[in-house]
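Same chain as my last thread, 110 residues:
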Amino acid sequence: MPTQTVQQVSLTGLEASYAAADAGGDAFLVGAKTFLHVKNGSGGDITVTVNSQKNCDQGSDHDSVTVVTAGEERFIGPFEDVDRWGDPTTKLAAITYSGVTSLTIAAVKL
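reply #2:
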C-alpha cells in the first residue's frame, strides 16, 4: 500500500502531483485541513473508500465512501481527526477503490 505524500497549498500556488491509484490501496498522513483530490479518467464510476478507524459516539463505523463518476473528479475530506481516520500507530489513513483504471489521486493540505 503506497503512501501518498501530502502536498501543501501555499499563497504562490500548488501544481499538485497525481499518482496512479494502487490496486492494493493507498495511504496518506491524516492532519488538519488534509483532503484527497481524485480524478477518474475511466469510462465507469469508481467508489473510493477511506476506512474509519474509530466508531462515532453512537458506536457506528462511518467510512468515507464517495462515488467518483466516469470522467469526473472529487475533492474528499477534510480528514482532520487523526483518531478517527489514522491508524493508531502510523497515523495513516487507508484508501481502497472499486477499480483503478485511469484513476489518479493527490493528498493535499490547505
